[in-house]
Description:
By secondary structure, the chain is an alpha/beta fold. The chain has eight helices and eleven strands. Helix 3 (about 85-95) crosses helix 5. It is globular.
Amino acid sequence: MDERLTAIVLAGGQSSRMGQNKALISINGVPLLRQTCQIALECAVSVKVVTFHPEKYRAIVPSGCVVLHERSLAATGDETPHGPLIGFTQGLANASTPWVLLLACDLPYLQADILHRWLQQLPEPSSAIALLPQIQARWEPLCGFYHQSCLESLRQFIAQGGRSFQRWLATIPVQQITFCADAELRHQEQQMLFNCNTPQDLATLRMYSSGQNA
């Protein structure tokens, strides 16, 4: 694990496209949220799960993880998820390390060894305050690294009504993760960014997992 790093796992979405709670979906008998946390523990000194419903997850997260109750925005008092940017901001405010690893809870192909390779690319905060993968000119914000110094920028953006990760990222210096030159390793890196969002995604994932374990 890296002493510079706290992992923040977001489990606050409504899973509307999936039709069931993605965090609780089991692959080979392990809920996606638990699998994500286990991998995060291999990389970071602290793992924090941010969610509106902590009571749903405390029993399944590994020992050593902290479950944080995502709070409603004071201006609305609405006890429903406001999107990942809000949960990330609240998790970041509770992190004490200089860098955080932000992860969605539904990354079934997540690999600790790839995250460790990416960690070697962390920039100096004077040059970039986020290190993220990019696919087809679009940042992948829920599987990347952020410096603690971006918290003030986040708060200002949210106070102005901003909720879009992509729009916020356009306002800060971001360094793109360099994928491996080796074609097989590069495929694994890109596959790791796959989110399990729909029943079709889940069916494909389970078919793949069954084939891997045959």
